[in-house]
C-alpha cells in the first residue's frame, strides 16, 4: 500500500497549526496506528490520548477528515489517500496539547444528575425484557463524540445551560429503569436544558456504540418533561408522591 499523508494539528492553547507526516500504511492499520507511527519515528512529543485500542475506553476521540471519530476504529484503507488525512482535536473542548482536549466539564455535568434511586420497598427480581430498553444506554463509552458534534455546545457554546446528548443518554438510562423511583423532569428542563435540543440527530450519527440517542433517549425524555411539567394533574401527583410519571 502507498504512504499516506497525515495532516495532524500540533499546538496548545497559545496557538498552533497542521503539520504533515508521511506514514507507510500496512494492511489493517487504523488512524491511531498511524499516530503511533509518527510518535515512534518522527515526533515523539505528539500528544495523543488512548487506552484500549479496541473501541471501548472512549479516549482516542478526534476529528478525522472533519468527522468526529474514534481513531482506533477508523481504518486507514477506508480513507481517501489522494489527499492528506486531517486529524484534529475535538473542537468543543478546550485544547491541552495537539490531539488532547480537556473533557473535565463533562464529569462536572455528570455530578449534577441524581444516581439510581430505587422505589421504596423495591422487589429486586428483574427479567431481561424489563431492562431491554435501558440496556442500550449502558453501552455508552463516554467518548464525548456526540458532545463534540452537537451544535448547541460546538457552535453556540451553551455549556452553562445545556448538558449535551451524552447526559440525556445517562438520564434516559435512569428514568426508564423499571426500579428507579425519582423524577428528573425538572432537572432536564431547568438545569440540563433539554429544550435547546432541536433533534438534528447529529449526535446519533457519530455514536460509535450505535446508541439511538435522539429517537430512544432524547425524544422520550422531551415527552416526559412535557407530561410531567405541563400536565397539572401529573405534576401534582409527582409533587405529592415524589414519583415519575409513566
Ligand atoms: S439531536 Fe439534539 S443533542 Fe443531538 S446533536 Fe442535535 S441538538 Fe444536539
Ligand atoms: S452516547 Fe455514544 S457518542 Fe455519546 S459519549 Fe456515549 S458512546 Fe460516545
Ligand atoms: S483507544 Fe479506547 S476507544 Fe480508542
Molecular structure report:
This protein has helices spanning 31-41, 104-111, 128-135, 145-149, 151-154, 165-175, 185-191, 202-206, 213-230, 232-241; strands at 4-12, 15-23, 61-64, 67-70, 85-88, 95-97, 100-101. With 246 residues, it is an alpha+beta fold. The longest helix is centred in the C-terminal third of the chain and has 18 residues, at 213-230. The protein is elongated and about 65 Å long. The structure holds iron/sulfur cluster (SF4) (2 copies) and FE2/S2 (inorganic) cluster. Residues 140-146, 165-166, 169, 206-209, 211, 213 line the site of one iron/sulfur cluster.
Query: Could you name the ranges where pLDDT drops below 50 across 5 or more consecutive residues?
Result: none
How much strand? 5-15%
Helix content, binned percent: 25-40%
- CA(first)-CA(last) distance: 57 Å
Number of helices: 10
Give a short account of the largest sheet: 5 strands, mixed
Heteromolecules bound: iron/sulfur cluster, FE2/S2 (inorganic) cluster
Mean pLDDT: 94
Indicate the overall shape: elongated
Strand order of the largest sheet: 2-1-5-3-4
Would you report the number of β strands?
7
Question: What gyration radius follows from the Cα positions, in whole Å?
Answer: 21 Å
Q: What structural class should be given to the helix and strand makeup?
A: alpha+beta
Order of H and E elements? EEHEEEEEHHHHHHHHH
